[in-house]
Amino acid sequence: MSKLFSRLAGFFSGRSLAGMDKAGNRYFTRTEELDGIMKEKRWVVFKGEQDPTSIPVEWICWLNGQRKKAPTPEEMADLEARRERVKLNVALLKKEEEEKRAREGSIPRGTSIGKIGGPDLKSFIKQFPTASEGERRTEASDSKDGERTKETEAEKARPVPESSEPTGTGTSYRPGIWQPPT
Protein backbone atom coordinates (compact mmCIF):
# COMPACT_ATOMS: atom_id res chain seq x y z
CA MET A 1 0.00 0.00 0.00
CA SER A 2 2.82 2.37 0.84
CA LYS A 3 4.43 1.64 -2.53
CA LEU A 4 1.21 2.65 -4.30
CA PHE A 5 0.94 5.81 -2.22
CA SER A 6 4.56 6.75 -2.92
CA ARG A 7 4.03 6.27 -6.66
CA LEU A 8 0.92 8.45 -6.62
CA ALA A 9 2.70 11.13 -4.61
CA GLY A 10 5.69 10.95 -6.96
CA PHE A 11 3.43 11.22 -9.95
CA PHE A 12 2.14 14.60 -8.90
CA SER A 13 5.20 16.07 -7.21
CA GLY A 14 8.13 14.79 -9.27
CA ARG A 15 6.95 15.75 -12.71
CA SER A 16 8.53 18.50 -14.74
CA LEU A 17 7.10 20.23 -17.79
CA ALA A 18 9.07 19.27 -20.91
CA GLY A 19 7.14 21.47 -23.31
CA MET A 20 3.89 22.40 -24.98
CA ASP A 21 2.75 21.97 -28.57
CA LYS A 22 0.72 24.22 -30.87
CA ALA A 23 -2.57 22.56 -29.84
CA GLY A 24 -1.94 23.30 -26.14
CA ASN A 25 -1.08 19.71 -25.13
CA ARG A 26 1.46 19.67 -22.29
CA TYR A 27 4.27 17.11 -22.09
CA PHE A 28 5.79 15.99 -18.82
CA THR A 29 8.68 13.87 -17.67
CA ARG A 30 9.95 12.42 -14.41
CA THR A 31 12.61 9.94 -13.43
CA GLU A 32 11.90 7.09 -11.08
CA GLU A 33 13.78 4.10 -9.85
CA LEU A 34 12.44 0.71 -10.85
CA ASP A 35 14.32 -2.36 -9.64
CA GLY A 36 17.46 -0.33 -9.06
CA ILE A 37 17.41 1.22 -12.53
CA MET A 38 16.60 4.89 -13.10
CA LYS A 39 13.91 5.19 -15.76
CA GLU A 40 12.50 8.31 -17.35
CA LYS A 41 8.73 8.35 -17.73
CA ARG A 42 7.18 10.62 -20.35
CA TRP A 43 3.52 11.44 -20.90
CA VAL A 44 1.13 13.98 -22.37
CA VAL A 45 -1.75 15.85 -20.78
CA PHE A 46 -4.22 16.75 -23.50
CA LYS A 47 -5.92 20.11 -23.64
CA GLY A 48 -9.61 19.41 -24.08
CA GLU A 49 -10.54 16.15 -25.80
CA GLN A 50 -8.01 13.33 -25.68
CA ASP A 51 -7.19 12.94 -29.37
CA PRO A 52 -3.89 11.10 -29.97
CA THR A 53 -3.93 12.15 -33.63
CA SER A 54 -3.42 15.77 -32.56
CA ILE A 55 0.10 15.04 -31.29
CA PRO A 56 2.85 16.24 -33.66
CA VAL A 57 5.32 13.65 -34.95
CA GLU A 58 8.26 15.21 -33.09
CA TRP A 59 6.45 14.87 -29.77
CA ILE A 60 5.44 11.28 -30.56
CA CYS A 61 9.10 10.45 -31.15
CA TRP A 62 10.01 12.06 -27.85
CA LEU A 63 7.25 10.20 -25.98
CA ASN A 64 8.42 6.86 -27.43
CA GLY A 65 12.04 7.52 -26.50
CA GLN A 66 13.26 7.89 -30.08
CA ARG A 67 14.43 11.40 -29.22
CA LYS A 68 16.49 12.18 -26.15
CA LYS A 69 15.56 15.86 -25.94
CA ALA A 70 12.11 17.35 -26.23
CA PRO A 71 11.47 19.45 -29.36
CA THR A 72 12.00 23.17 -28.86
CA PRO A 73 9.46 25.79 -29.97
CA GLU A 74 11.98 27.09 -32.55
CA GLU A 75 12.40 23.60 -33.99
CA MET A 76 8.64 23.11 -34.14
CA ALA A 77 8.22 26.46 -35.96
CA ASP A 78 10.94 25.55 -38.47
CA LEU A 79 9.37 22.15 -39.14
CA GLU A 80 5.90 23.68 -39.53
CA ALA A 81 7.29 26.19 -42.06
CA ARG A 82 9.00 23.35 -43.93
CA ARG A 83 5.75 21.36 -44.05
CA GLU A 84 3.94 24.39 -45.48
CA ARG A 85 6.64 24.81 -48.16
CA VAL A 86 6.30 21.13 -49.09
CA LYS A 87 2.50 21.46 -49.36
CA LEU A 88 2.89 24.49 -51.64
CA ASN A 89 5.46 22.66 -53.80
CA VAL A 90 3.17 19.63 -54.12
CA ALA A 91 0.25 21.85 -55.14
CA LEU A 92 2.46 23.63 -57.69
CA LEU A 93 3.72 20.33 -59.14
CA LYS A 94 0.18 18.96 -59.42
CA LYS A 95 -0.92 22.11 -61.22
CA GLU A 96 2.03 21.92 -63.62
CA GLU A 97 1.36 18.23 -64.30
CA GLU A 98 -2.32 18.93 -64.96
CA GLU A 99 -1.44 21.75 -67.36
CA LYS A 100 1.09 19.54 -69.14
CA ARG A 101 -1.44 16.74 -69.58
CA ALA A 102 -4.09 19.21 -70.73
CA ARG A 103 -1.70 20.53 -73.41
CA GLU A 104 -0.99 16.98 -74.55
CA GLY A 105 -4.69 16.24 -74.59
CA SER A 106 -4.54 13.16 -72.38
CA ILE A 107 -7.01 14.58 -69.86
CA PRO A 108 -9.56 17.34 -70.39
CA ARG A 109 -9.15 20.65 -68.55
CA GLY A 110 -10.93 20.97 -65.25
CA THR A 111 -10.49 17.40 -64.10
CA SER A 112 -8.78 16.80 -60.82
CA ILE A 113 -5.79 14.50 -60.64
CA GLY A 114 -6.39 13.83 -56.96
CA LYS A 115 -9.77 12.16 -57.49
CA ILE A 116 -9.17 9.19 -59.71
CA GLY A 117 -11.79 6.55 -60.36
CA GLY A 118 -11.08 2.94 -61.13
CA PRO A 119 -8.75 1.76 -63.88
CA ASP A 120 -9.79 2.36 -67.49
CA LEU A 121 -10.10 -1.26 -68.61
CA LYS A 122 -11.36 -0.47 -72.11
CA SER A 123 -8.21 1.40 -73.09
CA PHE A 124 -6.11 -1.30 -71.43
CA ILE A 125 -7.79 -4.08 -73.42
CA LYS A 126 -7.41 -2.14 -76.69
CA GLN A 127 -3.64 -2.52 -76.36
CA PHE A 128 -3.85 -6.25 -77.00
CA PRO A 129 -4.86 -7.70 -80.39
CA THR A 130 -7.83 -9.98 -80.60
CA ALA A 131 -7.28 -13.57 -81.72
CA SER A 132 -8.13 -12.82 -85.37
CA GLU A 133 -5.83 -9.75 -85.43
CA GLY A 134 -3.02 -11.76 -83.88
CA GLU A 135 -3.32 -14.45 -86.58
CA ARG A 136 -3.28 -11.81 -89.30
CA ARG A 137 -0.16 -10.24 -87.86
CA THR A 138 1.74 -13.54 -87.74
CA GLU A 139 0.64 -14.36 -91.29
CA ALA A 140 1.79 -10.96 -92.49
CA SER A 141 5.15 -11.26 -90.75
CA ASP A 142 5.61 -14.82 -92.09
CA SER A 143 4.85 -13.83 -95.64
CA LYS A 144 7.42 -11.03 -95.55
CA ASP A 145 10.33 -13.33 -94.77
CA GLY A 146 10.43 -16.65 -96.68
CA GLU A 147 13.22 -18.11 -94.57
CA ARG A 148 11.32 -17.43 -91.42
CA THR A 149 8.33 -19.32 -92.80
CA LYS A 150 10.49 -22.37 -93.37
CA GLU A 151 11.89 -22.17 -89.84
CA THR A 152 8.48 -21.95 -88.23
CA GLU A 153 7.22 -24.94 -90.25
CA ALA A 154 10.30 -26.93 -89.25
CA GLU A 155 9.82 -25.96 -85.62
CA LYS A 156 6.19 -27.08 -85.79
CA ALA A 157 7.20 -30.45 -87.23
CA ARG A 158 9.72 -31.17 -84.42
CA PRO A 159 8.33 -33.24 -81.55
CA VAL A 160 8.17 -31.41 -78.23
CA PRO A 161 10.45 -33.09 -75.67
CA GLU A 162 8.75 -34.37 -72.57
CA SER A 163 9.19 -32.26 -69.50
CA SER A 164 11.35 -33.59 -66.73
CA GLU A 165 8.96 -32.07 -64.24
CA PRO A 166 6.43 -34.37 -62.61
CA THR A 167 2.90 -34.12 -63.93
CA GLY A 168 -0.39 -35.35 -62.61
CA THR A 169 -3.21 -34.49 -60.28
CA GLY A 170 -1.41 -35.49 -57.11
CA THR A 171 -3.67 -38.43 -56.32
CA SER A 172 -0.94 -40.93 -57.12
CA TYR A 173 1.82 -38.99 -55.36
CA ARG A 174 4.17 -41.03 -53.21
CA PRO A 175 7.00 -39.25 -51.37
CA GLY A 176 10.54 -40.14 -52.37
CA ILE A 177 9.71 -41.73 -55.75
CA TRP A 178 10.43 -38.86 -58.16
CA GLN A 179 14.08 -38.41 -59.05
CA PRO A 180 15.48 -35.49 -61.00
CA PRO A 181 16.67 -36.31 -64.53
CA THR A 182 20.36 -37.14 -64.94
Describe, in plain words, how this protein is organized in 3D.
The protein is of the alpha+beta class and 182 residues long. 46% of the residues lie in helices and 13% in strands. It has 6 helices and 3 strands, in the order αβββααααα. The chain has helices at 2-13, 57-63, 73-104, 121-126, 131-144, 146-157; strands at residues 16-20, 26-34, 37-45. The protein has a 3-stranded antiparallel β-sheet, covered by helices on one side. Strand 1 and strand 2 form a beta hairpin.
Quick synopsis:
By secondary structure, this protein is α+β, with helices and mostly antiparallel strands. Helices cover 46% and strands 13% of the residues.
> Helix and strand string, N-terminal first?
HEEEHHHHH
Largest sheet: 3 strands, antiparallel
The pLDDT mean sits at 76
Number of strands: 3
Strand order of the largest sheet: 1-2-3
Distance between the termini: 78 Å
Uncertain regions spanning at least 5 consecutive residues: none
The residue fraction in helices comes out at: 40-55%
Number of helices: 6
Radius of gyration in whole Å, from Cα?
35 Å
Structural class by helix and strand composition: alpha+beta
Characterize the overall form.
Answer: flat
* Beta-strand residue fraction: 5-15%
